[in-house]
Write a structure and sequence with these properties.
Distance between the termini: 35 Å
Structural class: mainly alpha
Strand content: under 5%
Pfam families: MST
CATH architecture: Up-down Bundle
CATH topology: Four Helix Bundle (Hemerythrin (Met), subunit A)
CATH superfamily: dinb family like domain
Number of strands: 2
Shape: globular
Largest sheet: 2 strands, antiparallel
Radius of gyration: 16 Å
Length: 166
Amino acid sequence: MSPFASTDPATFTADLKTQFDAFLDEHRAALHDCLDGLTEQEARASLVPSRTTLLGLVKHATFVEKVWFDEAITCRSRQEIGIPATPDESFILEEADTVTALQAAHSRACEESRRRTAALGLDDVVRGNRRGPLPLRWVYLHMLRELAQHCGHADILREQILAARA
């Protein structure tokens, strides 16, 4: 069996939702794991002019899970969910934002996302997003794009951090 569900031969012929879930979970894991083995200082290292840090990427990934799989599905407001109003604010790190705390929060958010989508089909419409009603299929595609982009950011930042150790 392949170490990645997306490359497991059983996934090749699985239904589309199963395939989407496999790819989403791989990207979720990559973002979660980008912090493994880093010090708190390294995880907070600001290497680009934006607010993008490895710790901030995991915090932002938690935010987008809640936007797309809580707000969009449950129709609860961001205030009710307890998340920032804007994506940019989701990168702001607080003192309590540690590697352990944010990895745990991210894991919980991903598990909640899986639970909320388990009974939904790709053609089911979610109504709680600011763009208006959207099929779950679009949400999955958007999340794949979002997480893939941030996995790339994380790869580059982590490479720079590990190179600085040498």
